Amino acid sequence: xxxxxxxxxxxxxxxxxxxxxxxxxxxxxxxxxxxxxxxxxxxxxxxxxxxxxxxxxxxxxxxxxxxxxxxxxxxxxxxxxxxxxxxxxxxxxxxxxxxxxxxxxxxxxxxxxxxxxxxxxxxxxxxxxxxxxxxxxxxxxxxxxxxxxxxxxxxxxxxxxxxxxxxxxxxxxxxxxxxxxxxxxxxxxxxxxxxxxxxxxxxxxxxxxxxxxxxxxxxxxxxxxxxxxxxxxxxxxxxxxxxxxxxxxxxxxxxxxxxxxxxxxxxxxxxxxxxxxxxxxxxxxxxxxxxxxxxxxxxxxxxxxxxxxxxxxxxxxxxxxxxxxxxxxxxxxxxxxxxxxxxxxxxxxxxxxxxxxxxxxxxxxxxxxxxxxxxxxxxxxxxxxxxxxxxxxxxxxxxxxxxxxxxxxxxxxxxxxxxxxxxxxxxxxxxxxxxxxxxxxxxxxxxxxxxxxxxxxxxxxxxxxxxxxxxxxxxxxxxxxxxxxxxxxxxxxxxxxxxxxxxxxxxxx
Length: 509
Known about the structure:
This protein is mainly alpha-helical. The protein has three domains: 3-209, Tetratricopeptide repeat domain (Serine Threonine Protein Phosphatase 5, Tetratricopeptide repeat, Alpha Horseshoe), CATH 1.25.40.10; 293-445, no CATH class; 451-505, Winged helix-like DNA-binding domain superfamily/Winged helix DNA-binding domain (Arc Repressor Mutant, subunit A, Orthogonal Bundle). It has helices at 3-14, 24-36, 40-56, 60-72, 78-95, 99-109, 117-133, 139-152, 156-172, 176-193, 196-210, 221-224, 230-246, 250-264, 275-281, 304-317, 320-333, 348-358, 362-379, 382-398, 405-421, 427-445, 451-461, 466-473, 477-491, 496-505. It starts with a helix and ends with a helix.
């Protein structure tokens, strides 16, 4: 390893993740010399570290560019190429880009040509990380296998790096109890190694796990000791926001959002994509209607907390068009095996049930709320179970099927007592349910538009032509024309602008 390379690496490590211009010149010189001397492993290590620094400073595109440049210089070196591709795939996955799958496939294709065990472990670790981030079935098992291999071969840093994604994936899949020993192990290793960075990871995960039982305040100390670990701080602040929302503490919620906005400037942009939803959730007690809260292209481990928060906001404060949009998105894009989030421990079934009730599908919504209640009880989420029971009791009391009063009244009393003991006011959640029922029934009483008709009308109201709407929805423009005519007939109007005004009056869009 050359002196210039050592100087470059030291400059990176000592930079404190400051402005790239403070270390980029030395880094470039060191990288160039490493390539000239044929020290490809050293050059790749430097490029990967630089990409991590750039991503942590908010320079996502620059991080990819550094990796891309290094890849152009390492053709024929399978071990180095696989590591660079794996790192690039991880960055793309966290951003929510499906291109991550193509990138990791290219790295995996090199596996038979890898000459070192470490290179093999790196590929497997990166592949498991991508699977975890995209919430794929079997990803936790793949992560466990990859981490065990790395640990057995004396490469624990690979295993620890994967744990911080495997644990949230476990919890998302409803395996909270299984995740607890993983977090305990991560904390023990961090203490034994004296790693404040990994200690912050463990503290963030522990805080999320603990919040299913108690809405405790966040201890900032572990994150102050590891200021470079912005992702751990982000996870902890999302959980702090969740707890503040549940406690109806508007000031604490606003403070958490402000800290998240600041952290988003120093993280992969995949984190910032959920800020709008988290900001709406933080507006405790707000009564204004939410009109523009778009679902992501795909659910990931990074945006899952924001997705759950958004679904609950839209179910109770969204216009009909938004509720239809999110209900359809949840059915099509949120994997059935996803149950909750470690940072936002709300039941996916509960918030999806509210959406269904909101769009007038009371029977299916009530059945899903029953399922949410059973899951929360069996999975060890006492506070979420109580929230489910408060909302289920309202659906049973006011819903379309006759339910003996002794059942829902007893359920209501018990659940309310649990929530009050935890400092949670039950009335807002009961009122949110009755509001969703009222909105759904109002929509049922008015001319009924299908979800596709609502989508078409919403896009036409934005000023799009039939052909533009067709391109957006992936259908023929004549089909759009047919939908539009049906909308006009049902609303008793002619023309898209009159239809849009009438739909707005009815709360459809």
